[in-house]
């Protein structure tokens, strides 16, 4: 084999390996009923807590944006590191008990086989399609990290940010502006605490005035609803518990709840403006792109092969023997 031919062969092997590390059939032999188990538990959680789906997809998002999709967001103070749960971007994050219940159900049938990172990916898909959104084939094969990165969690995309820093944070993990707009569409369901958007009501950015991109009537409704900073308000005032394209029609009407939502449409000359218009025009356009962007996000720097571990308890790293989770606080 000539040197140039060998080089091409080597490049092809690298290319195939990088895209084949996560596969649809990873658990086909070891845990074939995984999708059914997770979906059952997600539906059960949503029946008792309508916010469960939004909580689960937030965990997957915050996991993948900090050192890749490795379950690190779920760790409670692993050795030598401070938990990502203590990071600024995760303050108030909820739903660990839902992840625990899903993991326990999976462990009963397939002990020591399925990673917490893969459970987050599957649960996010189920959270979306159970509440009316698109479905997609989840790729598996992620392993769980034995470390966390609080600094990374401090730097997660913020609800107070303008468009350029948001775009940079997405670019830094290999996601573009279309991915930013599509993935932000997850705010079509769920709730936000008033402390994350009440700064838009008056003296916005030191102007002495409300945020001009917030519809005045909607602002008054929000002010009445916000009886305190911890009060939770629907992201979508129209269909708050359904996964649909109304997130984008709300942006067109200056009814994006967070500053980081509305800037996608209200930043003059930004490429995101037309993307928002496209998503708002047809629900299937949003659904199709959301599927693609979720799969792309789920492939951010996964641990595979012999890297990391398969945690028995999503909140704790395994003992060195790899058999049981232990409390590391």
UniProtKB/TrEMBL annotation:
GO terms for cellular component: extracellular region. Ca(2+) 2 binds at residues 188, 236, 239, 244. The record marks 58 as: Transition state stabilizer. Substrate binds at residue 157. Keywords: Calcium, Disulfide bond, Heme, Hydrogen peroxide, Iron, Metal-binding, Oxidoreductase, Peroxidase, Secreted, Signal. It is found in: Secreted. This is Peroxidase. It comes from the Eukaryota. GO terms for molecular function: heme binding; lactoperoxidase activity; metal ion binding. Pfam families: peroxidase (PF00141). Residues 21-318 form the Plant heme peroxidase family profile domain. The keyword Signal applies. Disulfide bonds join 31-110, 64-69, 116-314, 194-226. It catalyses: 2 a phenolic donor + H2O2 = 2 a phenolic radical donor + 2 H2O. Ca(2+) 1 binds at residues 63, 66, 68, 70, 72, 84. Heme b binds at residue 187. Residues 1-20 form the signal peptide. The active site is at residue 62. Coiled coil: none annotated. Binds 2 calcium ions per subunit. Removal of H(2)O(2), oxidation of toxic reductants, biosynthesis and degradation of lignin, suberization, auxin catabolism, response to environmental stresses such as wounding, pathogen attack and oxidative stress. Gene3D superfamilies: 1.10.520.10, Peroxidase, domain 2. Its EC number is 1.11.1.7. One of its GO terms (biological process) is response to oxidative stress.
